[in-house]
Structure formats: structure tokens, C-alpha cells
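Q: Make up one entry.
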Amino acid sequence: MTQKNLDSVDLEILNLLQHDASLTNKEIAMKLYKSIATIHERIRRLKEQGYIKKIVAILDRKKINKNLIAFSHVLLKDHTATTLNRFETEVSKFSEVMECLQMTGAHDFILRIATTDMDAYHQFLRNKLATLENITTVQSYFVLSEPKSETAYPLT
């Protein structure tokens, strides 16, 4: 199902939940002038259809001591399906890896890595990432500030 199959109420529910997933069905119903049962059924359907993948709390990374964010660009030696799948499976096991994105262009993957500090990143690189097979190059960039960090997709 594509976005064009969603009506304005579905889109507003998704928008509200993207900005505050702690809203109750009652609170959403009041905001949209709908019954609680209607909202409950629509949210259930949106989950079943895969529009809502999961509901999470977004933490303040600095309060949980994840002070260093790195974007590491990874180039692999070969690009067989087996090699790509193996890399994705193995890198996904590392708790420091927050995202693994396969890319077009000069690098095969970009990893978003969260660690406490540069020493922790160094240990991650040497003792985890560098142990994976078929890596040619890892080039890392470190976040200095976050002027914008958004999780909600625009729906209009």
C-alpha cells in the first residue's frame, strides 16, 4: 500500500505519532475529533500494513554517554551477493552501529556509529570493524554538532 491509499485522517495520525508516540488513542481522538474506537482501529491497520514499523523512545544520547557519533564509509574488496550479505549480517551485530546503509558512489556502506569517546571508537574500529573480511577502506567522519536532528518524515 502506498501513501496515496491513506486518507487525511491516516496521515494526521501518522504525523501525530511521529512527533509524539506517547499520545494515547484518546488524546489522538480528541485532536482529530474522531472516536477512540476509530483511532484504535486505524492505528491497528497502519501497524498491520507496515506504515508504523515500531514505536520507540528517542533518548538524549549525551545523557547516556554516547558522546561521539561517527559516520564511517566502508569500501569492500568484492561485491558478490555473499560478501555483501555477510558484511551486513556481521556489522549489524555490533551494538555501536546504529545504522548500516548500502550506498551508491565511491563507498559501499555508510555506518552511523555511537560511542562514548574517541578511545571507544578506536577500540571498535580495531577490535570489531577491522576484523571483518573483505574490507578495503574505512574512512570516518566525526560529528561536531547537530543543528538539526529529525526523525519525522514530512507526509504532505
